[in-house]
Q: What sequence folds into this?
């Protein structure tokens, strides 16, 4: 037996006991006659001591120790003279009678501490050492805890966790698939699933009634800062339900998990139509931890001689509390900020509503104090506030103003971590027009049911049709999304037609789903949650990379094991493949 | 709301209530004035009735129904005149007041009943209909239940469920990898994991202490009857443990799960060295539900003038209880059975130990009754038993005799389903010599620790070295296997050397693991269970295919969605690949 206790377990109760611990050397302090070693494992840190009574053998072994050596230590638990209240084992220490080096360690490339001196790249290369740091490992423990909590809730509520295949059929809709050449079927390929969408719908046709799975999904997209080629989804589907049933069920799941893992009680989730979210927050995933709503002041500001506003499709404004005293420099900063290509505004108009009730704006030439007072009233602004105005075409300007709102929220520290404000965004448009390819794309996916009231518009004005789709948004982050599904093969065929599939293409790609619908498909609906994102929200982190044990970098590489990598020519031969020459 | 209750929920208590159910039409019986519809969902079957008071509208809708139509039915719960004790809702029926067809159904290609008329191929093509059958869906429900039980035990015992990557680096040791071309890294490939072996060892280096994961693994092998290209593993690893700790922990897990899911109490698991398993059972996965042990009678039978035995390296025998009365035809059958290429014996010698104490054998010419009595004594055979003898080189003959033992166990119905006899097989050889490639292969994998007592043999006689490896065997099926790992980089380097890797090859393939070991690796050990096989054992099934929602056939194809499939040339171009011409 390597140990009698873990390094986080011993308390004053154990004083006098002979124990054996094993773990990593966190720190050594050598004061000649006395030495102290902090021994660390997943469960905590325990202090080992030697003194003038310690055997020469132990003392000699101790001389050889370095940081991160793995050792086994035997000794007697005794009370510490000066307690350490920062650690759970701080009342005791172990007076060493035996010491064995299990594994030596080279000097690690960075310090294994909460505040490490290692840069990002180094820590990714030595991920196994980075994971030794408490702060990092805790995120992964939290991840396991969230998953377990979700599983408990769903299992207790009758959902059957069902594994769906990883080697599936490639479908052209959506993002790019990763593919897997089949040796046994030369020239043919599997795809890795972007989601188990079709399989979970087939499980509903199969009468499973309630399905879930915590499952890896794959997208071969150019990676952005917070994307991973493989990611994890909590994937759910239910039969004989309407949108209302789904929202209720998963609102309960979210409340249960927040309570269970973080001991946070969430209020009932408000519901907001997509159109309101865009108009009031300039985003389909509004952060409602703070107000600072967008106001459409187009009609208020036009026809006063300011040509930029007069020619704009939309003029919108927000009022930032207490920012009327912003300096010239701060305003310039904001102006540059909105002009960045990511935001894309042409310029920024400001109105300072001074504490004394006077106004100072960048458009004083065109608008009187009374005019500006009118704007302030429309925005419910108060003396001391700074009104910020953007103008231009409506779609882009609303979004830019939404981004500016978030930026001001950051500056005013209104987006507090540890405060969780979930809501359901509902009534999404069913279709999005793509100007480039001159066709509609499904905003969620081609299986999303139109709102029954809007089905009449499918032929006349498809862009106006609302979907029975919903997103769960928390603190401005889309945590999950789903929809009521089409369960009628004719309506599904019509959708494929609108999306530009020929009947033959639709049949080739989704034939097995449409065939399945011919044998009695129940009404069904579902949702999928981004598990990595959910966990990073629980952990108060901004990146999903920190809640993934072995993440890949932005080029899709694992720098620790240097993959992907070339494979042997024999492997390629077996797969009936050859590499193209790179020009 | 689509339903107030499920089809398995209503009891005599509900009589008089107005309810709405939804589900599939299982059966319709039309008796003119009265009609009965069995309505089915995942939860059960409820009988709907119409009578002379039923509205014309309902009656008309009812006329349109066919098998597997999805309907919504409203009515009043009333007591049945003749109760059906076979179903949980058998005390009541629903007198219909409303009936709506939610989805019609074409006539299904086979009957949706426990005893279906559908053949294998048809049921795989329409897997979503096959899954509607109670018997099939129950297997998947059981699967979810086993997984949940395993997760509860491991989580309660401090194991952190940690996801490891699916897109990893290809390693040449072991079976063939599936590979995934990387678009962002032209000419390079990911591999899909055959197991998360290296990652779980890295998690031990990272101090995770106890890890588990229920995880998909992949092997591109030619498929045999009960193999799938993707399969699921319960993968576990622990630090600061010896073999004894691992066996104890996972014996508890197995007992917990059998108790929890099947309400079966398992006895303590015996432990059997590999050498005993081979000698006594002719198998490294002995079925110990019955005795009929193998006996080495080589020295007993030699030098009596029977040249076949005299020239054999090994002569072994089993005694089949009560089979002395086997007919000539039955003996011939057995002889042909052992001569099949899968068994490969040259012939079969039998000795009938008749009820009257006399002997009749196929070698009476060479052996006296006293000789045969000596054999019987060695085998503890009794009058009425049939002694079966195989001879030849030891390795093959022992295995063939082990197969014959199982066959006799089947014939004598000694291998009862519902009886579970687990054991640990231990002390496996570390290495297997491969005559073809003239090198040693790791019997488990290259990270398995040799038994410390045998390390001295590593240079002098590697084939004799026992491994610190163990298999969990239940009823003759290998359910899990694992080992204590090497945690010392020099010993690991030596193993790679013995396995024929050059230091450069070892470094290129496993460098990141060997590097990790330089920074303080803890002693660690682990195990992996074949989850599909475990569930099929729980379900009393012989094939893992029946416990997989969407399995592939023996050519690795999903016949439901016809994958794998060709992909577009543009996709190949993006991946810098082209297909080779097939000759």
A:
């Amino acid at each position: 037996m390597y140990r009698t206790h873990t390094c986080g377990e011993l308390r004053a109760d154990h004083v006098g006991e002979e124990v054996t611990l094993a773990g990593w050397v966190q720190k050594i302090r050598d004061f000649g006659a006395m030495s102290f070693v902090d021994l660390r494992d997943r469960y905590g840190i325990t202090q080992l001591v030697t003194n003038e009574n310690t055997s020469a053998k132990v003392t000699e072994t101790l001389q050889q120790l370095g940081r991160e050596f793995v050792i086994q230590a035997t000794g007697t638990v005794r009370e510490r003279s000066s307690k350490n209240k920062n650690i759970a084992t701080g009342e005791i220490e172990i007076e060493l009678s035996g010491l064995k080096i299990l594994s030596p360690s080279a000097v690690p490339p960075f310090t294994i501490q909460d505040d490490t001196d290692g840069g990002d790249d180094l820590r990714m290369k030595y991920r196994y050492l980075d994971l030794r740091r408490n702060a990092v490992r805790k995120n992964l423990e939290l991840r396991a805890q969230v998953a377990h909590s979700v599983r408990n809730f769903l299992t207790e509520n009758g959902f059957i966790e069902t594994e769906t295949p990883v080697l599936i059929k490639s479908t052209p809709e959506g993002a790019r698939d990763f593919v897997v050449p089949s040796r046994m079927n030369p020239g043919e390929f599997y795809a890795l699933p972007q989601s188990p969408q079709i399989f979970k719908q087939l499980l509903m046709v199969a009468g499973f009634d309630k399905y879930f799975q915590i499952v890896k999904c794959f997208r071969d997209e150019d990676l952005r800062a917070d994307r991973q080629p493989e990611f994890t989804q909590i994937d759910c589907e239910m039969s004989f339900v309407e949108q209302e049933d789904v929202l209720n069920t998963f609102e309960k799941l979210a409340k249960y998990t927040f309570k269970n893992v973080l001991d946070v009680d969430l209020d009932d989730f408000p519901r907001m139509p997509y159109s309101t979210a865009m108009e009031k927050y300039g985003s389909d995933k509004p952060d409602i931890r703070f107000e600072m709503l967008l106001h459409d002041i187009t009609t208020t500001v036009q026809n006063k001689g300011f040509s930029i506003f007069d020619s704009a499709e939309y003029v919108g404004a927000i009022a930032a509390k207490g920012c009327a005293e912003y300096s010239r420099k701060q305003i310039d900063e904001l102006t540059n900020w909105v002009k960045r290509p990511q935001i894309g505004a042409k310029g920024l108009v400001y109105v300072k509503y001074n504490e004394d009730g006077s106004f100072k704006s960048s458009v004083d030439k065109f608008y009187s104090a009374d005019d500006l007072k009118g704007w302030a009233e429309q925005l419910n602004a108060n003396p001391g506030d700074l009104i910020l105005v953007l103008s231009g075409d409506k779609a882009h300007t609303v979004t830019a103003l939404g981004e500016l709102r978030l930026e001001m929220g950051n500056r005013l520290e209104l987006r507090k971590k540890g405060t969780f404000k979930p809501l359901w965004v509902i009534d999404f448009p069913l279709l999005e027009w793509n100007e480039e390819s001159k066709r509609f794309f499904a905003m969620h996916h081609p299986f999303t049911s139109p709102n029954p009231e809007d089905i009449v518009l499918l032929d006349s004005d498809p862009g106006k049709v609302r979907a029975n789709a919903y997103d769960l948004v928390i603190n401005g982050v889309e945590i999950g999304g789903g929809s009521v599904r089409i369960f009628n093969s004719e309506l599904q065929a019509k959708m494929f037609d609108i999306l530009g599939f020929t009947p033959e293409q639709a049949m080739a790609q989704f034939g097995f789903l449409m065939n399945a619908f011919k044998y009695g498909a129940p009404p069904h609906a579902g949702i999928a949650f981004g598990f990595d994102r959910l966990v990073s929200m629980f952990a108060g982190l901004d990146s999903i990379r920190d809640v993934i044990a072995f993440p890949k970098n932005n080029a899709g590489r694992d720098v620790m094991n240097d993959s992907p990598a070339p494979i042997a020519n024999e492997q390629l031969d077996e797969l009936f493949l050859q590499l193209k020459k790179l020009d």
